[in-house]
Amino acid sequence: MIQVNNLTKEFLQGQQSTQVLKGIDLNIKEGEFVAIMGPSGSGKSTLLQLLGGLDLPTDGDIEINHNLLNKMKEKERTIFRRRNIGFVFQNYQLLPTLTVEENIAFPLHADGKLTNEKAKTIDELIRSVGLEGLNDKRVNLLSGGQQQRVAIARALVNNPTVLLADEPTGNLDRSMAEEILVLFSKFHRENKQTIVMVTHDIFAAGFADRIILFRDGAIDQDISRRDGDYAKHLANFMA
C-alpha cells in the first residue's frame, strides 16, 4: 500500500541545511495499523506530511497504491490527496460555525460528490463514530472527544486508501483518548482501513499492529506485536 524509498528531507535556515529525514526505507501493507513513535524533533511528523502529499521530499520516492506521489504535479497531488488520503489532526481542524453533518460533508463539496448516496454514507459515519442525533449541532458546542469523532468521520467520508493521524489524542484526557483509539481499531478491524498514526504516547501506540520507532531522522526499530521480543524492544527504546 505504501512504499517509501531512500526518503530524505532537508530544511534550509539561512545558509544552513538541516536534514530531518535521513534516507528512510519503509513498507506498509494494505490494512495495517502502524504507529510512529519518537522524541520531539525526530522526524515523525515530517514523514507523515510527506506521506500525505502536504510537502515534497528533498530526495527519494513515496508510492501509495502504485501512485508515485512525489512525481505528481501540484494539482494532481492535491486531487490525489483529496480522494485517497484522510487526515486526522491533533487540533481537529474543523469549521466551528458549521454543524457535525456539514463538517463531515465538506470534502465532498470540494470534489462535487455530494449525492444522495453520499448523504447516506454521512449518516452511517455519524452513527459509526457514536454521534447519532447530533447531525445539526454546531461543532464548537461539542466536547473535545466529540469533535475528534467528527474529524475521523470527515477523514473517512471519501473512503480513503490511507488514514493518516497526527497525534490524534494529544488534546484529550485518557478516557476520551481511549474512546478515539477504540474507534480507530474498529475501522481498522471491520473495514481493513490502513492507518498510519504519529504519537508520543505509548498507550496510544499500543493499539497498533506495528510500532516504528524514530530517532534522529531515521528508523531506530520496527517492531510487530507478533515479535516475541516486542515488549523488550519497546522498553529499551523508551529507556
UniProtKB/TrEMBL annotation:
A Pfam family annotated for this chain is: ABC_tran
Keyword terms? ATP-binding, Nucleotide-binding, Transport
CDD domains per the UniProt record, alphabetical: ABC_MJ0796_LolCDE_FtsE
Report the SMART domains cross-referenced here: AAA
Which InterPro entries has this protein been placed in? AAA+_ATPase, ABC_transporter-like_ATP-bd, ABC_transporter-like_CS, ABC_transpr_LolD-like, MacB-like_ATP-bd, P-loop_NTPase
Enumerate the SUPFAM superfamilies for this protein.
Answer: P-loop containing nucleoside triphosphate hydrolases
- ABC transporter domain segment(s): 2-235
| Molecular function as annotated in GO | ATP binding
Q: What is this protein called?
A: Bacitracin export ATP-binding protein BceA
Instruction: Tell me which species this is from.
Output: Sutcliffiella rhizosphaerae
